[in-house]
């Protein structure tokens, strides 16, 4: 028994000794592997076990995996968008190291995960940086800014006057591409920044290019004739001549010298009082009770008269002599009813004439007439003169005739009582009516209240007429509508002399002021100062010769006082 136990003990001890020896041998071998130096970066390998640290065997070379980069001693995680870097190798795939920052190339943008190509013109977008350089994200699309155009590869600044072009989009706003050159349209000129409408006759100018077609900048004003020398056309006051055609506009050749007519005077620029012209637009505004309409013209020489009716686009030419000449007009094509209608007529003469529109009524004794203002004097801004109507069945009206397409007209109402109904919409005092009219269209707006002080503005020159059927001036039963063509605001003045009218010993003078104005009124030996608000008027009784001046331009009308009650300014 003792021997068995001893033998077992010796056996166990041997086993333990053997086990300890084995474990010790394994530990030494593991320690040897850990301290072994493996293959380094780009060293040859067969498996990743041959490579050191975080290197893996790719294409038989020890390398970092694509999410990592080699910093010289170890593989580290690549850096993301906008993180600090020293080399593009440190940045994740598609990013570049630019100025120590991991960013996308210029032609790419970061979508939150990777760099993707920037979007082309008209591609959908959410933010500006998604679009190609020079493009911006506007209303969800990659677009050029309004000052640029797309040249096929990038946005380029739009071209200015006289630069070459292939398409209109290459030219700046207000310019058009004509004959491969960026230019203004014929009715505009380039002011150095954009195209603006050419100026009308007698407007201030510095160059002839600023003036309307067939006009010249002469002595600082747009005029019909240019400043030619004494041997050419357009001769100035007191220069020798053999015919009127050699003289400057408004002058006539009398006694071999360019002179104003006996009823006119030279104001330094032109002969004042000359109402002659060669181009006119005409319309009548009251159809009921009209028996006939006609033109009355006056000229010093014979000529040809062209009449173009808007309604049927027909043209008729008539020869006239150097005496007063009357010409009948078609009633149905020349009188406007209301709203927008294509009625009226353009009249052109081969020589300067004075022109009047005449309307005879069927009562046998009433005639309405107005002087037609030549086209060259028309403008874009007017203040309406009108009169108090007799009753609600009467009306005060304004009528507009356009001379060019796409004319925007803005009417700012001023009326004694409201509202005014137009197209089933009620308009009150100081409300605005806007409309767009094409060439040779007429527009009539009327109301059973005095519309005096209403302003009319247009984007292109227009004619404006005022009328007032059954007004308190002529009385309830009188058909005379007091039809007149209104002078534009650039044709009115600050000083007026009002003559005595022999056949009308007592008259009313009505003074309209576009701006707040102080007037000084002289009536014989009497002197009075009156203050008038903007777009308002005053009336006073006129007997002999009156004289008025003001600190701003104003408009004067003289009317009979048979029925009109007016303020007595002088006792």
Q: What can you tell me about this protein's structure?
A:
The protein starts with a helix and ends in an 11-residue tail after the last strand. The chain is elongated and about 130 Å long. A hairpin with a 2-residue loop joins strand 19 (252-254) and strand 20 (257-259). The protein has 571 residues and is mainly beta. Strands 28, 31, 32, 33, 36, 37, 38 and 39 form an 8-stranded antiparallel β-sheet that branches. Strands 23, 24, 25, 26, 27, 29 and 30 form a 7-stranded antiparallel β-sheet that branches. Strands 40, 41, 42, 43, 44 and 45 form a 6-stranded antiparallel β-sheet that branches. It has 6 domains: 1-36; 37-77; 118-155, no CATH class; 158-196, no CATH class; 280-488, no CATH class; 492-571, Hypothetical Protein Tm1070, Chain: A (Sandwich), CATH 2.60.290. The model is unreliable at 1-37 and 228-233 (pLDDT under 50). The chain contains 2 helices and 45 strands.
Short account of what is shown:
By secondary structure, the protein is mostly beta strands.
């Amino acid at each position: 028994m003792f021997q068995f136990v001893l033998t077992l003990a010796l056996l166990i001890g041997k086993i333990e000794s053997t086990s300890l020896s084995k474990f010790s041998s394994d530990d030494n071998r593991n320690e040897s592997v850990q301290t072994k130096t493996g293959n380094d970066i780009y060293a040859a390998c067969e498996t990743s076990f041959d490579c050191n640290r975080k290197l893996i065997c790719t294409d038989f070379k020890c390398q970092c995996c694509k999410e990592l980069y080699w910093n010289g001693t170890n593989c580290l995680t690549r850096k993301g968008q906008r993180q600090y870097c020293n080399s593009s190798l440190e940045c994740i795939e598609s990013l570049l190291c630019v100025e120590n920052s991991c960013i996308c190339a210029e032609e790419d943008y970061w979508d939150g995960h990777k760099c993707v190509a920037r979007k082309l013109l008209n591609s959908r977008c959410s933010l500006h940086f998604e679009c190609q350089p020079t493009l911006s994200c506007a209303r969800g699309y990659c677009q050029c800014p309004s000052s640029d155009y797309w040249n096929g590869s990038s946005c380029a600044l739009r071209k200015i006057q006289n630069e070459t072009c292939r398409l209109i989009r290459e030219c700046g706003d207000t310019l058009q591409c004509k004959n491969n050159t960026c230019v203004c349209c014929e009715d505009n000129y380039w002011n150095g920044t954009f195209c603006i409408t050419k100026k009308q006759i007698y407007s201030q100018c510095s160059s002839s290019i600023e003036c309307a077609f067939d006009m010249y900048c002469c002595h600082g004003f747009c005029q019909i004739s240019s400043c030619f020398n004494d041997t050419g056309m357009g001769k100035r006051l007191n220069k020798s001549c053999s015919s009127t055609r050699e003289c400057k506009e408004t002058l006539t050749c009398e006694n071999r010298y360019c002179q104003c007519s006996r009823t006119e005077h030279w104001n330094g620029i032109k002969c004042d009082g000359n109402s002659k012209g060669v181009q006119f637009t005409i319309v009548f505004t009251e159809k009921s009770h009209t028996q006939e309409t006609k033109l009355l013209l006056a000229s010093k020489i014979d000529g040809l008269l062209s009449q173009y009716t808007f309604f049927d686009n027909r043209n008729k030419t008539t020869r006239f002599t150097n005496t007063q000449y009357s010409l009948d007009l078609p009633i149905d094509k020349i009188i406007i009813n209301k709203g927008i209608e294509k009625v009226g007529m353009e009249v052109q003469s081969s020589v300067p004439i004075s022109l009047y529109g005449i309307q005879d009524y069927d009562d046998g004794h009433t005639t309405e007439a107005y002087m037609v203002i030549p086209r060259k004097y028309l403008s874009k801004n007017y203040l309406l003169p009108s009169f108090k109507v007799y009753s609600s069945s009467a009306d005060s009206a304004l009528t507009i005739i356009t001379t060019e397409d796409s004319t925007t007209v803005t009417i700012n109402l001023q009326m004694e009582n409201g509202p005014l109904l137009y197209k089933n919409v009620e308009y009150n005092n100081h409300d605005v009516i806007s409309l767009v009219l094409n060439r040779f269209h007429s527009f009539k707006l009327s109301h059973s209240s005095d519309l005096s002080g209403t302003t009319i503005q247009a984007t292109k020159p227009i004619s404006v007429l005022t009328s007032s059927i059954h007004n308190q001036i002529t009385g309830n039963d009188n058909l005379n509508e007091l039809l007149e063509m209104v002078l534009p605001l650039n044709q009115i003045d600050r000083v007026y002399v009002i003559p005595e009218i022999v056949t009308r010993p007592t008259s009313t003078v009505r003074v309209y002021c576009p701006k707040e104005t102080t007037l000084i009124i002289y009536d014989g030996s009497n002197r009075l100062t009156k203050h008038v608000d903007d777009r308002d008027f005053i009336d006073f009784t006129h007997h002999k010769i009156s004289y008025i001046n003001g600190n701003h331009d104003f408009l004067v009308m003289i009317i009979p006082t048979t029925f009109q009650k007016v303020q007595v300014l002088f006792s």
